[in-house]
């Protein structure tokens, strides 16, 4: 970046900070030290009068990592644009200026049509110190290098998807990027708590809290959670499924590594009851829920259980355990199942338990359509969330895409945690209502889920 | 250790031969095809089993012998017998 451009960007950054201070946002950012993220402004269609604040036809294009500068310049030249600058802090991010009179939207669309070369492209607009701009216009854009592939958080139309068919994470992050005061229990195959993109967001038992004691199991050192398969305190994942779900909820954001979770900062409590092959027993699921309730009673602020599993077998004991969790103020968010079935007629448990603390989640694809595998149910399935081709953390420091209502469930659990980060005093009932009443209604979900919509993080946290 | 397609077919043939009391030579491979199963129990859960609701890739192995048919389902992690005389089996 040359000196002139640097000063220009510095001035822009200062203008953003001044604007944010007026909006009362700076205090929040100080509380959530995620300043490595890049601040940008929202789309003009939502916040700006076209032609009024528009500076020039300029777009921010993120080329895929490793794209040579010469190739970036040649591409710009071929599209009759000018390569203006490179943002060194974000690998592959370039500023491109139009030279043939096209609008910034059109230019951005041209680059988005090159998915083999471009992760995302978006118009770049000048930010005015204008009170009309206050409020929702600013969002945080994480610098995590794989963020461009996370269509569930920001769907730019990448890989042929439908732009804005996402959970509106960017606008939600203007209000909060999460809090490590909020604990989310991931009851699953455990979590790889050493994964670089998760390790800073893993719950650790406070040193002044007693170890977990169970009448039958005795005392267990539950420093990192609980393993109900082996009845010990090591919930290390040997399958990958739980690590994937955990990353969706809370892979560390703004750390220049991997992906961003719905929460950049959160406390994930790893629980293991599913073995290496991907299955577990009802008994061990109940033991894991019992552990969560115990820790809640011991003072841990665990408010949410994410449950990406299930069966068509009804269990009264499991239902009772989940009801007990509800009595402790714990929201239980569960996968509706992958049988392409109407769960009103063919229930899938635990999602189908008719309990006041249960949310049953269906899965959407990147086109805002119900995923072909997803269960649905006008009465018993409550909300939908992205659940197809979801990129998240995996074993051995890896990242991979996976599909299922398993993946949609932690999207909702993550949004629930975001809401609690912003409003920690909400009751479980209020939290559930907030999630279900702040959805984006979709035609494709009419008669399919009771809320009729896709989860919307921005609306849920009150940023929209 | 990860299961290969060949391992899965070999184990499936051996299982079916044992169930029917015939030699493995009498087991015929009707089809072995790539498949996506709806969950981590490969759509063949056994009683009291909870499974991760993630689409899981693997192989559908269709075998027959003496007029009897059986469908095995396998992934890199496991092998199951699907809906054999009304029940699923995890092998």
Structure description:
The complex is a heterodimer of chains A (464) and B (91). Chain A is α/β, with parallel strands linked by helices. Helices cover 27% and strands 21% of the residues of chain A. Chain A has twelve helices and 21 strands. Chain A has a seven-stranded parallel beta sheet with strand order 10-11-7-13-15-16-17, with helices on both faces. Chain A has a four-stranded antiparallel beta sheet with strand order 3-4-2-5, covered by helices on one side. In chain A, helix 7 links the parallel strand 10 (226-227) and strand 11 (265-272). In chain A, helix 7 runs parallel beside helix 10 (405-422). The radius of gyration of chain A is 22 Å and the shape is globular. Chain A starts with a helix and ends with a helix. The model of chain A is unreliable at 13-55 and 126-137 (pLDDT under 50). Chain B is an alpha+beta fold. In chain B, 18% of the residues lie in helices and 45% in strands. Chain B has one helix spanning 5-20, and strands at 28-37, 49-52, 56-65, 68-74, 79-84, 87-90. Chain B has a five-stranded antiparallel beta sheet, with helices on one face. The two termini of chain B are 15 Å apart.
Summarize the structure.
Chain A is α/β, with parallel strands linked by helices and 464 residues long.
Itemize the secondary structure elements and their pairings.
The complex is a heterodimer of chains A (464) and B (91).
Chain A: H1 3-23, H2 26-31, E1 38-41, H3 44-47, E2 58-63, H4 69-78, E3 81-86, E4 93-98, H5 104-112, E5 118-123, E6 138-141, H6 169-173, E7 178-188, E8 212-214, E9 218-220, E10 226-227, H7 241-250, E11 265-272, E12 279-281, H8 282-297, E13 302-307, E14 309-310, H9 316-327, E15 331-335, E16 358-364, E17 383-386, E18 390-393, E19 399-402, H10 405-422, H11 428-437, E20 440-441, E21 453-454, H12 457-461
Parallel strand pairs in A: 7-11, 7-13, 10-11, 13-15, 15-16, 16-17
Antiparallel strand pairs in A: 1-6, 2-4, 2-5, 3-4, 8-9, 18-19, 20-21
Helix pairs in contact in A: 7-10, 8-9
Chain B: H1 5-20, E1 28-37, E2 49-52, E3 56-65, E4 68-74, E5 79-84, E6 87-90
Antiparallel strand pairs in B: 1-3, 3-4, 4-5, 5-6
